[in-house]
Amino acid sequence: MKALMEVQGLTKRYGGFTALDNVTLSLSDDAPSMTAVAGESGSGKTTLARMMLGFIEPTQGAVLYGGKDVAKMSASEKRQFRREVQPVFQDPFEVFNPFYRIDHVLTTPVKRYRLADTDAKAQSLIEDALKRVGLRPQDTLGRFPHELSGGQRQRVMVARAVLLRPRLIVADEPVSMVDASLRATILDELRTLNRDLGISIVYITHDLTTAFQICDNIVVLYRGTVAEAGAVERVIGDPKHPYSQLLVSSIPLPDLDKVWGADEIPVTEANAARLNNGCQFAPRCPSVMEQCWRAPPPKFVPDTQRLATCFLYDGSAVAPDDDVASVFRPPETARLG
Amino acid sequence: MSAPKEVDPVLEVTNLNVHYDTGHGPAKAVNDVSISLKPGERLGLIGESGSGKTTMATALMRLTRPPGRIASGSVMLDGKDIMAMSARELRETRLRDIALIPQGAMSSLNPVMRLEEQIIDAIVAHTSGMKRAALNARVEELLTNVGLAAEVARRFPHELSGGMKQRAAMAIATSLSPKVIVADEPTSALDVVVQRQVMQTLGRLQDGLGAAVVLIGHDMGLVAQFADRVGVMYAGKIVEIGPVRQMIEAPRHPYTRLLVDSLPGIKVKQALIGIPGLPPPLVNLPPGCSFSPRCPFAFERCKNEVPQPQEVGDRQQAACHLYPEHSALPPMPVGPNDTEAQP
C-alpha cells in the first residue's frame, strides 16, 4: 500500500505529561479516505492533528508525507507540504482578522502559491471555491467577518483550503461551534469534497454521530493511546472497548427508546495522573481485571475490520501490524448523496 | 399557551417581549412568548443561534441588560410578578426561588475565590445567622449532591476541569433549593460523557428539590434525553410546544421536523440534511410567518399573516397555517438543498 501520510510511533510529551503515546496510523494513497479521530478532551486528538499538520514536532516517532519526514523537510518540500495538507480549525470566530475583508484569507494563498497569473483568473478560482462549499460569491466577498454567521465563516475556511487543491484536509472539530442544524450541511460538503475532488479527510471530533455518518474508519483515543480503531460500522455500531461503549451510550440521541440509563457514571478528572504501566482506562473501567493494571493491553482483533486494545479480548488474534490502519476497511467508492 | 390547570403553575410567563434597541429600531429577541411550568416539570427550549433563547433565560431572571430591555409582559413566579418586584424583593427572589445555571460556567465563577467562599457568599446573602460550621457542612452537602468530593471546596476554579466547574455552578444554583432552575446550555462546552454526567446530575438534583427546570439548548438529542416537554423557538417566538415524544415522533411545525431530521443517528448512513437558509434579522422580520422564507411548505397566506399558536394535538400547540386544514404534517417535499441564503 502506498501511503499519503504515515504517522509512525508518534509520541508527544509536555514535560512529564504524555499527550500522545506511540500512535501509528497510515492514510492510504490508493483511494481518498475519510478517517475520524475521536475522544474526550485531553485524549490527544488535537495533539495528533497538530503533528499531522507539522505545527508541532513529535517527541518520538515521525510523520511522513509522501515518504518524507515532515520535521526534516527542506524549505521547498515544506512549502509543497503546506499546500497539500490543509487545516480547518474549530473556532470560526478566532481565525479571521476582524479588520480584513473575507477576501483577504482567499487572495493570500492565491498570491503565495501563484495559483493564477491574472486577477480575473484569481477571481474565478476564488468564486469556484466558494461555490463548492455552498456560498454565493457575490454575497460573501467584500464582507467583513462579523457580517457572516459562524456557519458561513467556517465554510469560508473550507473554501480557503479547497482553493489550494490539497491532498489532505485535517479538520479539528470543524462543526463543534456551529449550530446543530447547520452541522449537517457543512459535513455533507466535506464529504462531497472527498468524493468529487479526491481529497482525503481526517475529521477530529468528539461527536460520534457525525463521524459515523461521514467517515469510513475511526480511531478512538483515550488519554493518548488508541482504545479502539476500525470501520465506523464496527466501532460505533457495535463497540467492543469499554471506553468506546461508554462513548456510544452517552450520545444524546433524539430517540426516546434509547434514553440514558438512570445509573450515573462515576466522575473522573480529565487531568488526573496517567498510569505508568497498564491500561489507561483501568481506573474507570467497569470490567477491570487484575492484569489491566500490570501491562498495557496489545491490539487485539476480536472480529474483522477493527482492533481493540483491551484484555477482554485476550485470546483473539493480535493485530499483525502496529499500524491501526491495517484493520481499516477500504473507503466506500459510491457513497450516499 | 397554558398547561392544564390541575396544579397551579410555579412559573407563568405571559406575553413576554424583550427588545434590543438598535439604530434600525428594536430587535425583537423575545416576541410575545407565553409559557407555563408546573412544579417538578422539565421544559426544554431549543432553537438556533439568534432565536432568542438566551435572551429568554436572562429575562426570566429579570437580568436583561441594556441595550436589551423587557418591553412588556409578566413572569409570575409562584404567584408573584418578577417584573413588578422592587430591587430588594428581586435580589431576595433570585437564587432563593429562581436560579440560573449560566452558559459557560467556566466564566461564571470568580477566578480569585476558592469555591467554598463562592458558595457561602451565595448562602449568606440570603440567610442570616448561619454559623461557619453549619455553612461548611452545607457546602460539603451541596458538593456531594453534584458528585464532587468535599476537598474540592478548597480549590480555585482554574484547578477544576470543565465538567467540575459546571457542577460547581450547579451547586451554587441549588444552594437555596429554588423552585425554578433555568439552565442555559449547561453542557455546550463539554464532551459527550461529561455532558451525560452533568445532565444526570441536574436531573437528580431536580428530583430531590422538586424544582421545575427550563433547559435551554440547540441540540434536540440532548433536550429529548432530559425534558418532559419541548418548546421550539424561532426568531423570538415559540413556534411549537408539546410533550417530548410527540415533538420528536409527530412534530407539526415544519421547523421542528427539520430540526429533528438534521440530527443523524448511528444506525443507518443517510444523506445529511441541514436546514437551508438563515434565521431572519430580528430588526426587520418578514411579514407573516418568520419561518416562511425557509419553509418548504410556505404558501401565500404564510407571507402575509402571522400564524397564531393553535392546538394541533394533545397538549401540543403549533403556530403554523397548515393547521387546522391538515391533521398531520405532510411529507417533506424533496428538493435540491439550496445554498445558504444571506442576511
UniProtKB/TrEMBL annotation, chain A:
Residues 5-248 form the ABC transporter domain. PROSITE patterns: ABC_TRANSPORTER_1, ABC_TRANSPORTER_2. This is ABC transporter ATP-binding protein. Transmembrane segments: none annotated. It comes from the Bacteria. Pfam families: ABC_tran (PF00005), oligo_HPY (PF08352). It is a peripheral membrane protein. It is found in: Cell inner membrane. Belongs to the ABC transporter superfamily. InterPro entries: AAA+_ATPase, ABC_transporter-like_ATP-bd, ABC_transporter-like_CS, Oligopep_ABC_C, P-loop_NTPase.
UniProtKB/TrEMBL annotation, chain B:
InterPro entries: AAA+_ATPase (IPR003593), ABC_transporter-like_ATP-bd (IPR003439), ABC_transporter-like_CS (IPR017871), Oligopep_ABC_C (IPR013563), P-loop_NTPase (IPR027417). Coiled coil: none annotated. Residues 11-260 form the ABC transporter domain. It is a peripheral membrane protein. It comes from the Bacteria. Keywords: ATP-binding, Nucleotide-binding, Transport. GO terms for molecular function: ATP binding. Its main location: membrane. CDD domains: ABC_NikE_OppD_transporters. The keyword Transport applies. It is found in: Cell inner membrane. PANTHER family: MALTOSE ABC TRANSPORTER, ATP-BINDING PROTEIN, OLIGOPEPTIDE/DIPEPTIDE ABC TRANSPORTER, ATPASE SUBUNIT. Belongs to the ABC transporter superfamily. This is ABC transporter ATP-binding protein.
